[in-house]
């Protein structure tokens, strides 16, 4: 954004350049006189160029309008001439003085009002310019991109001239560059438009017979496939902010007029449209987001902070009926931890078994009754019916668990051999009392 003093300096510069202005003192009307008045300190002689704008309103698109170039007489500041344009057609007026083309300003497209007089034109016969001109690339003007303006030498008188006219903005002379002859593109020169993209532009051509004898074409300056604004500056021709030149005059068929507080600024309209469109898109996006949020809000699970001191309310829910596959189900660990009582009982059992091992071979009863195990996860040796059984070791390493197994205390008892058997002391005689057998019964004598 330019600083305020920069914008003020531009406006002051524009006021100094355009030290005079013009106004229409009569409304444009079909086949009637059109009057203009110059005010300010211009440099006479003055002139006005009337350029047809837009399509013809006549049936079959018959074009009866031609570019009109009128000179003021001497130092006069007023002019009146017959406007040979049909009703409902439009034109753009450009006023100049001796300082240059378009120095007095350019009007917006003015509309011609209806009248009963139709004698100034033939509604069935189209007119054409004195010579045609061409532009390459055809039918387009691209910002900062070279264009070739060319013509057929046999159809012109002298060297053609070209002007650029921006309705309601700046008008300027197009500088004629080095003239060359190109096959299939005639005689012409290269022109680099410094007009900004989006601007409405009329290109007018003329020769020694006067301004506009080669006709005009209407363009909208484009940015091109590869936009380039290197040639555009603050002084580049553009639509002028503020009231348009020409004062108050009709701008449509219904008689609507311009006013001192309004103007035509194509660039401003384009920027305003773009900003308005973006704002509408943003608003629609916010509305759509709000509607979607309302629909999905109640069903969505809100994120809750983690609280290590309180349980999750979901923990009170009943467990699901999901059953893990068989290979994921845990197997019970059947080994029981030894206790003091069981260890003592087994020790006594082993000692008693050693005393009763006379029937065993000397190699059998000399074996160790229990083998100690160093693996804290192994089981306690089992003894069955007084016989020694080998210890079993749990293969805990073959089963994996999500939690590490807690080690338990294991009491290890080392048993000793009973040694050689000692001579047994003679046992005390045992008295066994038996009941009578009743086998020696005698018969009583008779």
UniProtKB/TrEMBL annotation:
Low complexity bias spans: 251-263
Membrane-crossing segments per the record: 269-292
Q: Does the keyword Calcium apply?
A: no
- Top-rank taxon: Eukaryota
The record's region (Disordered) falls at: 232-263, 300-335, 371-446
Signal peptide limits = 1-19
What keywords is this UniProt entry annotated with? Membrane, Signal, Transmembrane, Transmembrane helix
- The reply on keyword Flavoprotein is no
The biased composition feature labelled Polar residues covers 232-241, 371-381, 390-404
Q: What is this protein called?
A: Uncharacterized protein
Question: Where does this protein come from, organism-wise?
Answer: Boletus edulis BED1
| Taxonomy of the source species | Eukaryota, Fungi, Dikarya, Basidiomycota, Agaricomycotina
């Amino acid at each position: 954004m330019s600083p305020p003093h920069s914008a003020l300096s531009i406006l002051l510069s524009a006021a100094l350049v355009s030290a005079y202005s013009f106004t229409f003192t009569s409304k444009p009307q079909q086949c009637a006189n059109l009057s203009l008045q110059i005010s300010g300190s211009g440099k006479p002689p003055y002139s006005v160029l009337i350029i047809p704008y837009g399509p013809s309103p006549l049936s079959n698109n018959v074009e009866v309008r031609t570019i009109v170039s009128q000179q003021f007489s001497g130092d006069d500041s007023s002019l009146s001439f017959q406007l040979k344009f049909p009703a409902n057609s439009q034109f753009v007026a450009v006023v100049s003085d001796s300082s240059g083309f378009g120095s007095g300003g350019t009007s917006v497209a003015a509309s011609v009002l209806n009248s009963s007089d139709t004698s100034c034109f033939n509604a069935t016969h189209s007119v054409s310019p004195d010579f045609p001109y061409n532009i390459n690339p055809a039918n387009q003007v691209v910002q900062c991109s070279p264009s070739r303006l060319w013509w057929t030498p046999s159809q012109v008188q002298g060297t053609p001239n070209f002007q650029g006219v921006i309705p309601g903005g700046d008008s300027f002379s197009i500088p004629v560059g080095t003239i060359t002859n190109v096959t299939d593109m005639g005689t012409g020169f290269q022109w680099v438009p410094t007009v900004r993209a989006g601007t409405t532009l009329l290109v007018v051509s003329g020769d020694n017979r006067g301004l506009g004898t080669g006709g005009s074409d209407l363009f909208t300056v484009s940015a091109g496939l590869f936009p380039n604004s290197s040639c555009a500056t603050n002084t580049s021709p553009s639509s002028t902010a503020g009231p348009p030149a020409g004062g108050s005059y009709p701008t449509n068929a219904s008689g609507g007029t311009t006013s001192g507080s309004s103007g035509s600024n194509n660039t401003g309209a384009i920027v305003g449209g773009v900003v308005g469109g973006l704002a509408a898109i943003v608003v629609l996006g916010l509305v759509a987001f709000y509607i979607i949020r309302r629909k999905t809000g109640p069903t969505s699970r809100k994120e809750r902070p983690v609280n290590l001191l309180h349980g999750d309310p979901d923990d009170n829910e009943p467990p699901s009926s999901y059953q893990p596959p068989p290979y994921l189900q845990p197997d019970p660990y059947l080994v029981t931890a030894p206790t003091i009582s069981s260890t003592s009982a087994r020790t006594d059992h082993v000692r008693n078994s050693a005393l009763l091992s006379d029937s065993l071979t000397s190699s059998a009863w000399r074996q160790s009754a229990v083998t100690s195990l160093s693996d804290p996860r192994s089981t306690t040796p089992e003894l069955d019916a007084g016989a020694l059984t080998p210890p079993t070791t749990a293969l805990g390493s073959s089963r994996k668990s999500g939690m590490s197994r807690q080690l338990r205390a294991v009491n290890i008892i080392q048993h000793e051999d009973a040694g050689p058997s000692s001579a047994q002391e003679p046992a005390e005689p045992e008295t066994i009392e038996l009941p009578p057998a009743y086998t020696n019964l005698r018969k009583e004598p008779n």
